[in-house]
Design goal:
five-stranded mixed beta barrel, 7 strands, alpha+beta, OB fold (Dihydrolipoamide Acetyltransferase, E2P)
Amino acid sequence: MKKLALTVLGPVLAVALGALGFVWWERGAPPGFRPEAVPVDVDSITRDHRGVRMSGTAHLQSRLRQTAGGETFYLYPLLSQGDTLGREIHVLLRTPVRPNDLYGFEDRTIEGFARPPGNLVDRTVRDSLMKKGYHFTEDFVLVEEWPPESDGG
């Protein structure tokens, strides 16, 4: 009986620990926690960063809405502070916070996970932004903004 339990539970435990380790490595913190937010510039961020804090100008007039897992997210370019004319996207922001419909641009300071875009930025997202006159750098980074923390009350 012990051999059977070990034969079944051993691989299951190994896979679960492997998945936990991968998520921990990818996010820079265990699931449910946030890594330390390291200050970084919009122009110098890389896909090797994990938790970041950055300031820049959000191009809200080009925002896109994305629904995943029953949640709504907004995607828009984040360029260097004060850059309202730029069209090169090095940072694409994905946030659950709905931007004000009256703003075309907004200076933002955000904290979030920096990561490769993967399947969150598919061909539809890229094409939509390119139709609006933007183009992506080859090594652009997706930053998923952390939702505001509740104050416990």
